[in-house]
Amino acid sequence: xxxxxxxxxxxxxxxxxxxxxxxxxxxxxxxxxxxxxxxxxxxxxxxxxxxxxxxxxxxxxxxxxxxxxxxxxxxxxxxxxxxxxxxxxxxxxxxxxxxxxxxxxxxxxxxxxxxxxxxxxxxxxxxxxxxxxxxxxxxxxxxxxxxxxxxxxxxxxxxxxxxxxxxxxxxxxxxxxxxxxxxxxxxxxxxxxxxxxxxxxxxxxxxxxxxxxxxxxxxxxxxxxxxxxxxxxxxxxxxxxxxxxxxxxxxxxxxxxxxxxxxxxxxxxxxxxxxxxxxxxxxxxxxxxxxxxxxxxxxxxxxxxxxxxxxxxxxxxxxxxxxxxxxxxxxxxxxxxxxxxxxxxxxxxxxxxxxxxxxxxxxxxxxxxxxxxxxxxxxxxxxxxxxxxxxxxxxxxxxxxxxxxxxxxxxxxxxxxxxxxxxxxxxxxxxxxxxxxxxxxxxxxxxxxxxxxxxxxxxxxxxxxxx
Length: 467
Ligand SMILES: [Cu+2]
Known about the structure:
This protein is mainly beta. The chain contains 4 helices and 24 strands.
């Protein structure tokens, strides 16, 4: 189905591909060069220059690692190292990753490929790489202490195996993994089918991203690595909205989303305007009889999900985690709920002492998207992003699927805001409002009965864990 010509058709976009970032060559001549990416923008798909053809994936705010062929073996070079990752405009985090970025580059191979991966450790401690979901010799599984010694700082280890199963996979350390994953060490892996696969349908656009979580105090840059549940930044590929690029498709495209979860909690991923089928997991393609239409699918910890749909509805469609706290950025966790509290007098009195003091939230917290509140340096606003109708009030795990009838095939450039056909946008009702129907005194429950009880519920303060 996928012919060489189709790939070449998209070559114009890919011409500026991965090499656009600055490229450094490994000093060690025997190793494949370590390609380094310096930016956080989504790179065009890397059309395979050698080996079997396939339709490459697009890594959201990421890139695919180039390889070299060496005697029929596909060779890659990963470098584990400290990186500076721009998580959103104006907010740079000091993370650990691979080849200049967190997450590391996506590795794309073809079912049956003999793969050799050189892993150089430029961290200050041992590391290893586990190839999540792969069938491989036990000694290549990357569990330090169990299947190999950890890779010492400054050393390079070689992993070698055949990519036996087509599908959606990832890689991450299995050495001091609580710290190393909290610091952002992870990457995507896609094994494309060798021929037409009975359970893997061809698609026109194929996007992938990893779910990740960080705990970075406002005003600082390094994640707290001991955090177990109370993370304050929820990311896709170490980016937070509005730093996450849109997913741009042409109307009618068959689209695949591949998602992997390396956080400490589950994420129900929700798509607006379309139904999708879960067509695969890290365990392999889902049997057709087991696929059901969904608009939300939960991606549990350590799981991967592959979602297929036809993008046949034009528009700007939200794609997000359905846990509402995961579509916000860093906030103070001790903020009390102030809805319904009139504290204007209090604000006036505190304002006399603290000139910049602002009280927030008596009508809800949406106001915070409008205010230019002074933030500590290097802090992402809690909710941000502007659309054609105003502020979005979103952060974290949120992006937009942009479906356009005139988007050229293979073109991933942002087409701008959707232009709605006349009369197709929700509008204000301007007639007179009738009085709501309420029960009469005779119908109302008698005083003191259950119907009269008004509960005053107070959210527990302080603790904000478990989300
Ligand atoms: Cu979530």
